[in-house]
Amino acid sequence: MTETERLDEELQRLRAAARELNLRLNGRFSGQEETVEFLILSLMAGGHVLLEGAPGLGKTTLVHALSDAVDLQFQRLQCTPDLMPSDVLGTRVLRVDDDSGARSFDFEKGPVFTNVLLTDEVNRATPRTQSALLEAMQERQVTLHGETYPLAPPFFMVATQNPIEMEGTYPLPEAQLDRFLFKLELQLPDHGDLTTILSATTGGSAEPEPPSFSREEWLRLQALVREVAAPSDVVEKVAAIILATHPDHETAPEPIRSHVRYGSSLRGGQAILLAAKARALLANRLNISDEDIRAVARPALRHRLILSYEGEARAVRRDDLADAAVAAALG
User: Fold this and answer.
1) Looking at residue 54, what DSSP letter applies?
2) Distance between the two ends of the chain, CA-based, in angstroms?
3) Which residue among 39, 81, 110, 262 is the one 20 to 30 A from 21 at the CA level?
4) What is the DSSP string of 148-184?
5) Measuring CA to CA, which residue among 269, 267, 266 is closest to residue 234?
């Protein structure tokens, strides 16, 4: 078997496992097919997700099911105003040897040292604690007391926030929002899906299923995503989309000029390209297309567009603004 044939066989096996993962999560999380798809794409692309939705929609269940299905270590961090950075990252502990009496400081790792970190109600943590996650999200490492501790790959953080209860919360600063590859918004299921969920969650416990992926297979899939080709003309279009989100740029459409104060950062373009590569790989294509770009632009841009006063007053939807930027660049 040639190297090309081995690679093709590996790709087919990983694609089949990814499709099985999608079906498995949709089976446990009825009515949120788009959210499940984007969550898988984000993990394939090596990015983090901000998951926004009202209480009781199953955010924790979804993330826990994902970590089980991919055989990854899972930790859940419940954010509260009294949560300290050491509760997230870890701390140094003084230990005394019983025999010699020698003293030493040992580092006890916090919950951030995991593969899948669910940061529940992240906007209830103080800005000091929120900022403790920035290095982990971007550099995949933690620096404490002058020492750097790498996080074992893959490191994937899903942060949730409740859009209803805003009292006693600390909105995420733009610098931290920019670290999330996607922002996903959970909607209330329709009547049929709600009926299915109620039946499934009030009956007997489901038998645990074996993982669809091993940790090594998932790391390999992430590496293959990076190898998907991005034609130069498509990369230029993504750059044009990012520029079109800035109200002072000559290519910005009228809705952007009227309702946006600051446009997307460079990370927005990186998020679009990486997610588009993941989507193309799942579709059995080795290069990305305009359709891939259109499909992932909304979740990649909606948290990166800062509305102007007029945009806030009119409650302009960021998704509509992202669509306008895409239309300006792609036609």
Assistant:
1) -
2) 44
3) 110
4) EEEPPSP-EEEEEE-SS--TT--PPPHHHHTT-SEEE
5) 269
Q: Got the DSSP string for 226-265?
A: HHSB--HHHHHHHHHHHHHTSTTSTT--HHHHHHEEE---
Q: Same fold for the domain at 1-79+112-201+214-227 and the one at 229-331? A: no
Q: Which residue is listed with tokens 């509760």?
A: 87
* The model's pTM: 0.89
The residues that bridge with 157 in the sheet, in sequence order, are: 117
- pLDDT per residue over 126-162, tens digit each? 988 888 888 899 899 998 878 889 999 999 999 998 7
**Cα–Cα distance between 151 and 85 in angstroms, integer?**
16
Domain spans, the chain: 1-79+112-201+214-227, 229-331
Q: Within 13 Å and on the Cβ side, how many CA atoms surround 52? A: 17
pLDDT per residue as tens digits for the range 82-96:
999 989 998 888 777
DSSP-derived letter for residue 211 is P
Distance (Å, whole) CA 237 – CA 322: 14
Q: Which homologous superfamily is 1-79+112-201+214-227 in?
A: P-loop containing nucleotide triphosphate hydrolases (3.40.50.300)
